[in-house]
Structure formats: structure tokens, C-alpha cells
Amino acid sequence: MNDQKTQNVLSHQKKHSNMSEHTLNLKPSTDEIDFIDLLAIFFKNKVKIFFITIFFVIVSALICYQWPQKWTSSAIVTVVDSEKIAELELLSSKLNFFDIFLNFNEDYLLSLFIQLFDSNVLKEKYLVGSDYYQKLVKDHPKSKNTFIFDAIKNFNITYSKSDKKNQFKDYIFYTLSYSADNGKDAQNCLNGYINYVSAILNERLNTDIKNKINIRKNVLSFMIDDKGMSINDNANLSIAKPNLEKLQSIKLSDIKIIPFEYLQKPNEPVKKDSSQSAFIILLSGIAGLMVSMFYVLCFMFYVLIQHYLSQRNKP
Description:
By secondary structure, the chain is α+β, with helices and mostly antiparallel strands. The protein is built from twelve helices and four strands, in the order H-H-H-E-H-H-H-H-H-E-E-H-H-H-E-H. 64% of the residues lie in helices and 8% in strands. Strands 2-3-1-4 form a four-stranded antiparallel β-sheet. Residues 12-31 and 228-232 have low confidence and may be disordered.
């Protein structure tokens, strides 16, 4: 009986011992993917990384090559020398005697010219009538609005005191520029627009002078006629008559007004504007490298998932 019990106990212990061994056999495998294995994936895909990066660089280079070239003509203007507006100053001094004040000094003339030059309305009027604009829209008649908008944007003004690169902050001048598809067009367009604005300035100032003189003539005439007699004494009347005669003797022919002086006339650019092509190609190369690296990282992540699932499914 005791032998039977002993045998049962030994048999029970043996079963537990077998279960313990079986449990130990269920322990997960020690197989792992280490850092070197992951790094090897990069080396295996180095050709793909290289060609994806090169593809981005080539595409960006082709795009930059297809962009239209820009050539910029520039001119530098400053306040006009007083000797060049001597005729205007002489007329101004004569008119002061009749209480007509022009106040057309050098600073005012330059300021008015820059104001007119910066007018989009005048830019459009000039461009629409120019040979340059007609050449632009010749092959694209339905895109006139687009062409005129782009052409207007190519005019630019830089003030000396606002230019960070200018070393002469106390010297006032303006840099006027225009960009076109070639240097000659840029020069002709800038030179033509400067002359166009100068002509408008002359017309406006001469009209202003004539209007002021005519207004003063009307006042003096009113003082002399019967209606004026009721409100003016004989002394004023004696002054009004000779003043009107002198004012009428002044010729009202247009005066040539020079609103600025050139420090540099519109030049013909000898090289195209430096573009950002190199910078764009560099950014494209970096973008291509990042895309290719992202592709490899996704592939590595896929490998890790596959490895994890295979290890989890092992008995």
C-alpha cells in the first residue's frame, strides 16, 4: 500500500517537472534586429536615395531654366541744379510782384516727379502705347490684362535713405529701374517712361502757372471795371491798371521745366539679374533627400512590424 502511494507521488512530481520544462520552452526567442541591421537597410537603399535626390535636382533645374530671364535697367536722379531752372525762378520772381507765388523749388520738383513716376495710372497709359507692350501681347491678345499687370510691377523706385546698402544716407537721390526680357527693352522702356512723366509734369506746372496768372488778371480787371469801383478807392484803382498791363505783357509760352538731375542715365544692363536658381536647386536637393530618407524609414518600419509579428506568432 505504501509502495503504491510512493509511486503515485513520484508520478505526480514527474508530471509537474515536465510541465515546468514545457513552460520554459515557451520563452520568446532572443532573436532581435539590432541597430547595425537597421543601418544596413540604409546602405542597401543608397542607390534609391541617390537617384530620388538627383531626380528632384534635375526637375528643379529644368524649371529654373524655363523661367524667363530678367534684365534690369536703372537710373539715378537727384534734385536739379538751380541754374537749370533759372527761367522758372525768373518768372517766379516776376510774378511775386503781382502776389502770385509759385513755390516750385528744387525739392518740390523732384518730389512731384517721383509721385507721378510711381502712379500706376500713368504706368499703364505709357505701357499700353509703347512698342514694348505691343510686342508682349502680339502673340497673346487674350492675355492683355495679365501682361499689363506684370509689366507695371517691373517698375521700381528705391529711396536713398531707405536703402540699407546705401552708404551715403545724408545724400538724397532716387534709383529708378525697370525689368524686361532683354537689356535693350529694359533701357528703352525706362528712358521712355521718364521722358513721359517729365512731359506730364511740365504740362501740369505750366497749366498751373497760366491758371494763377489768369486768376490774378480777372481780379485786377474786376477792380478796374464799374463793379469794382464801388468797392475800391482811387489809389487801388491807380495801382490795378498798370499791374494789369504789366501782367498782360508777360508771355505765357510754356517754360521747359527740368524736375531732376541725372546721376546716372538709364543704362543698358550687360548681364541678367542674378536669380535664386542655385538656392532653389539646393532646396530641391534637400527635399529629394528628405523624401528618399522618408521612403527608407517607412521600409524600416515595415520590417520592424513584420519582425514583431513573426516573433509574436512563434509558439
